[in-house]
Design a protein that fits this description.
The complex is a heterotrimer of chains A (136), B (306) and C (143). Helices cover 61% and strands 14% of the residues of chain B. With 306 residues, chain B is an alpha+beta fold. Chains B and C meet through α2 and α3 of B and α1 of C.
């Protein structure tokens, strides 16, 4: 199994628990938090590769959180989760550099595939940066 | 353009060597007849000098052409910078004008409060909120411009195009349905595998779908088609039964800041960003439209094998 | 007294701009109406009298320059101040040719705008005065 870490951010605790459990069952290291602020705090301290982020959350919403994550960790790949996101927020999310959108209720297999693609993208990105550093 | 220059000079040099050889040959043959020999030598010298003169002239012309080419590129560049700056100026000056007026209004209210005319701080609130809104509008423009300038280098991955498009269609569908807009899918089964930057393509598809719903407003159909083109590329065609784009606007549609939306509703950068993205991915994007009938965007992305 | 107050028509597709501007001009004692499109403005001008028009250049459908041409065709005496977010030489030349009175770049201080309105109004009054005199003489001479 590829060794990467996923952070799931959702204020619906049932959903959060289930999804984290299912990642772990597949030996993927996953953690869950229930707000944007907690997510940012955790990202300060620990290393993650992919963040799954609910768009609609009370307090700091998904788009705000995405903005902050991309500001602090530009290479982090973020998948947005949405129940019924407005197209407006969808466009905003993609412009801010989200990797993809997943509609809720998400099929786990689909989510897993997207997480793997997102991780592949992050690795590619890091590799590119390493190469350019070697050349320089 | 610049690459042509050494090649053409070389061609001239190719003529120089045979010219010299001919000169020697021609001067050798009539050795028996000194007068003829002299004549031949003179003729040879003249042709040699002519070739050298031609050589110099061509070099001069080529140098001039290079300068002109450079000037042309420069002037085209300046023209597009000029166009862009005037677009930026316009987009930023309008919100600035509103901010200026709101400040003026706040000043007026402040004076009235001082004079005890019965106005209160609450009469300023609306203006303060409007200023905040307009500052956001400016920020939105400058941020998109920065995105535009930054030109993120694409990251290439294998992408299932049909699936990618379906995801974006589903994102738009709910809102579309509320406006009586149906989305028809014609996903080709033999769409070639594509290696491209998924998030960037998503951004483009979402943008065009959103424009399509905007063009329809109420009651209509968006048709999304994917197929393999004759040359093995992947084609995405998104058409709508919306208001259509007038002929005179059609060639401006990918220009930065061109928008038909009311002030503050669109920055006019969406389609120019899409155009930039698709070009960077080695593809093409084209538009066809008829007023009253609808608009069709065709995107072509290189297939993984091409 | 109403003679001294210029009647001003603001035409700008940016709603907030025209609403606040009309509030500000009203506070300064002007008689103001604000409309959001050139078409509405032309309609309004068929049966209402104005002294000065503030006309935005960039508007969807009929833009300010087209509207200016139409306004000047109907009433060459009307004073028009063009407002725009960007100065373009082409547009400026076109406006001069069409006889637009002034050309103001947004954003501009309200005092500048007031000055332009006052000047335009003075000019219109002076022209009307002159025409009245000339018209009166012509009428006398004609009889």
């Amino acid at each position: 199994m590829e060794d990467f870490r996923v952070l799931v951010v959702d204020d619906e605790l049932d959903f959060l628990e289930t999804i984290v459990k299912r990642f772990k069952r597949r030996k993927i290291r996953a953690d869950g938090v229930s707000s944007g602020r907690e997510a940012l705090a955790l990202l300060e301290q620990e290393h993650f590769d992919v963040v799954i982020l609910d768009v609609r959350m009370p307090g700091m919403d998904g788009i705000e959180t995405l903005k902050e994550i991309k500001r602090k960790r530009p290479l982090m790949e973020v998948i947005l989760l949405t129940g019924h996101a407005s197209v407006e927020s969808g466009m905003q999310g993609m412009q801010l550099g989200a990797f993809d959108y997943v509609m809720k209720p998400a099929e786990f297999e689909e989510l897993l595939e997207k997480v793997q693609q997102a991780y592949e993208r992050k690795s590619l990105h890091e590799e590119k940066i390493r190469e350019s550093k070697i050349i320089v | 353009m610049l690459g042509n220059r050494p090649f053409e000079l070389k061609t001239v040099r190719h003529y120089l060597a045979p010219g010299l050889m001919m000169l020697v040959a021609v001067s050798l043959i009539p050795l028996a007849h000194p007068a003829l020999s002299l004549l031949c030598f003179l003729a040879g010298s003249v042709s040699f000098l002519t070739i050298r003169w031609l050589h110099a002239e061509i070099r001069k012309a080529l140098d001039q052409k290079c300068v002109l080419d450079a000037q042309l590129i420069q002037s085209q560049k300046l023209a597009s910078i000029g166009e862009l700056s005037s677009g930026i100026a316009h987009e930023i000056n309008n919100p600035l004008a509103i901010i200026g007026q709101e400040v003026e209004w706040i000043r007026h209210v402040a004076k009235e409060i001082e004079a005890g005319s019965g106005l209160t701080i609450a009469d300023m609130q609306d203006s303060v909120q409007e200023i905040t809104r307009q500052v956001e509008r400016c920020r939105d423009i400058t941020h998109k411009l920065l995105d535009f300038a930054r030109k993120k280098e694409p990251l290439i991955q294998a992408v299932d195009l049909n699936k990618l498009i379906e995801d974006m269609v589903r994102l738009v569908e709910r809102e579309a349905k509320q406006h009586g807009i149906a989305i028809e899918r014609h996903y080709g089964q033999n769409v070639p595998p594509v290696r491209t930057d998924g998030p960037l393509v998503r951004q483009v598809v979402l943008n065009i779908l959103n424009n399509a719903t905007y063009a329809i407003q109420k009651e209509g159909v968006i048709t999304v088609t994917t197929k393999e083109s004759e040359d093995g590329s992947a084609d995405i065609v998104i058409s709508d039964t919306g208001s259509g784009i007038p002929k005179e606007d059609l060639n401006k549609i990918f220009d930065p800041f061109f928008t038909t939306k009311p002030p503050g509703k669109g920055t006019g950068l969406g389609l120019s960003i899409c155009h930039g993205i698709i070009s960077r991915l080695g593809g093409t994007i084209a538009v066809e439209s008829e007023v009253g009938r609808g608009t069709m965007f065709s995107i072509r992305l290189p297939g993984a094998k091409t | 007294m109403s003679e001294l107050k210029p009647r001003v028509l603001i035409v700008d597709d940016e709603e907030r701009f025209r609403m606040t501007l009309s509030k500000l001009l009203k506070v300064k004692g002007l008689d103001v109406k604000a409309l959001g499109s050139a078409r509405e403005a032309l309609e309004e001008l068929t049966d209402a009298r104005y002294d000065v028009i503030l006309l935005d250049v960039k508007m969807p459908e009929m833009d300010g320059v087209q509207a200016l041409a139409e306004i000047k065709k109907r009433d060459p005496q009307l004073e028009v101040i063009m407002l725009t977010g960007h100065a373009s030489v082409d547009v400026a030349v076109e406006i001069m040719r069409l006889g637009g009175y002034e050309y103001l770049l947004k954003p501009c201080p309200i005092e500048d705008l007031m000055d332009k309105i006052d000047a335009a109004f003075e000019r219109k009054k002076a022209r009307e005065e002159r025409r009245k005199r000339v018209g009166g003489q012509a009428a006398e001479g004609g009889r």
